[in-house]
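Quick one: structure for this chain?
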Amino acid sequence: MWSGIRPIDLHEGIYDGIDGVSDKDQLRKTLRQARRDHVAAQPQAIRALLFNRPPVSLVETIPANAVIGLYHATRFEAPTRGYAQFFIESGHDIALPHFADRDAEMTFRRHTDPLGESDLEPGPFGMTQPADDAPAITPDIVFAPLIGFTPDGDRIGQGGGHYDRWLTDHGDVRAIGLAWDVQCVDTLPVEGHDRRLNTIVTPTRIYAVD
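Got it. Here's what it folds into:
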């Protein structure tokens, strides 16, 4: 395993100038930079191996007929293509977030081609998503992107609140975060609408919260 992993420690001064880490915009900026630096420092040969497939101990907890919600990863997010391919080959339906427009709530639509991505198109936020005519589908398990997380399952995302709202409306859905180890922090500012993750998977650990 690559040894250049160094989780963020809030007590080392990395958040100097942030008032009680309550300024979420500045916090996101700091965490994004730490994530970029971490990914850029990884040797390409190592990066290709990470998140290639979900851990066996996690797979064993997922029902055979579960619909799996993933996300189309950006350059510095924990990648999901290997997970999508694994779950499709295991007989699961795969769903990705979809937005009809910038004011629409997040929904999920079926994703059938994780390698060729022939069923995807640009979405209103610049993210790649299923085409508008892809069937709507509700995941049983959602793998969520994040900017930072705590070992207790608190999560900070992009700031739109899309995942928090969707997960609140679908309270029985299991929420699993995918992250680099460097994205782990000891504490995050949490608000009443924030939804805690059930599990977080990194290249070196599984944080089982529930």
